[in-house]
Design brief:
The chain is mostly helical and 342 residues long. The chain is built from 15 helices and four strands. It has a two-stranded antiparallel sheet. The longest helix has 31 residues. It is globular and about 80 Å long.
């Protein structure tokens, strides 16, 4: 039972990343009808927002130490963060320690602007073009973005640290009465609850606000909403920006779990599109459900017992599930009739 529960936890935090990326993909497809193959690159850019903020907060200058000397008695040089001169030593230590969660604020602003520029500058010209054209142009954009990141940040993964308060592991077993062997990293638990919160806020925004109501109506019948005098295009631009923000904050918070590199967006993109298809094209609930479901299945497939029985199953389990689901439910788990069926 302990091993099973640990695999469920592993699947939930991984499924959280899949669900957040798939949620943004479904928002864009459901509202604009665009298949956005650059969405994984937005996840990657969000991760590098965290990297950029961490580097910015750690910029420092050298000065002669007043207390430390070498073995000859000569004063040593020490690195002093510029941040300490502005906010003091205590706040400097705190901000640098919590650079990853603080980077959410940077990611919201940066990714929102990137989303608006992408939609206004490129995506709007492909609304009525075939899906193949949309895939080609957004895939090309993804390659351009990842090459820009590789140029400025290098090709190697850049480790990011979780805040020191969440650096250890939580004794989840003692919380639930399962025994002392169920120990799980704090930050992975934080990421799961963070992803659940973002998903709930996104659904609440779409369900309980006037803006969200109009967007949902536009997803069902864009032409009719436009005839009512509502500037649905401007709202769709905001939705594209929202989808970019969701992907960006997901990437920023994931950096302590997976060290960001320029290629991580492509790695998550393929799996996230499978998640969207399994959940059902255009179904927000289906994207979230499939994200967590496939994350858990992938986690169980990575167990040593399963690997011994079927070597390499963890690499293909997601695609096997997709084949089975689509053979039995051609529209996916919660797909809507008429989506991509013309």
């Amino acid at each position: 039972m302990d091993a099973i529960f640990l695999q469920i936890l592993n699947g939930l935090d991984k499924g959280g990343a899949y669900a957040l990326i798939a949620l943004g993909l479904t928002l864009v497809f459901g509202t604009l009808g665009v298949v956005n193959f650059a969405h994984g690159a937005l996840f990657m850019l969000g991760a590098f927002c965290a990297v950029s903020l961490e580097r910015l907060l750690n910029l420092s200058y050298e000065r002669i130490s007043e207390t430390e000397t070498d073995f000859l008695g000569k004063p040593l040089k020490e690195q002093i963060p510029y941040l300490a001169d502005f906010v003091g030593e205590d706040w400097s230590v705190f901000l640098r320690d919590y650079s990853v969660p603080i980077s959410i604020l940077l990611a919201i602003v940066v990714m929102g602007l990137i989303g608006i520029v992408m939609e206004r500058g490129l995506i709007k010209h492909f609304y009525r073009r075939p899906h193949a054209d949309q895939i080609l142009v957004t895939f090309g954009l993804a390659i351009v973005l990842q090459e820009i990141v590789r140029h400025y940040f290098g090709a190697n993964p850049i480790p990011q640290s979780a805040p020191s308060d969440f650096a250890g592991a939580a004794n989840v077993g003692s919380w639930l009465g399962l025994g002392p062997n169920v120990i799980y990293p704090w930050w992975r638990l934080v990421y799961f609850f963070f992803s659940a919160l973002v998903i709930l806020l996104t659904f609440a925004f779409l369900q309980f606000t006037t803006f969200g109501m109009v967007v949902r109506a536009g997803m069902q019948d864009r032409e009719t909403v436009g005839l009512l005098g509502i500037n649905i295009q401007r709202r769709f631009t905001i939705v594209f920006a929202l989808a970019a923000v969701v992907a960006g904050v997901a990437g920023a918070m994931y950096t302590p779990i997976l060290s960001p590199d320029y290629h991580m967006g492509m790695d998550f993109l393929v799996l996230s599109f499978v998640v969207v298809v399994v959940g059902g094209m255009g179904s927000l609930g289906g994207a979230v459900l499939a994200g967590f479901l496939l994350g858990i299945l992938q986690s169980f497939a990575a167990m040593n017992v399963i690997q011994d029985l079927v070597p390499g199953i963890s690499q293909i389990i997601v695609y096997l599930v997709a084949v089975v689901v689509l053979l039995t439910l051609p529209r996916g788990l919660m797909g809507r009739k008429g989506v991509m069926e013309d």
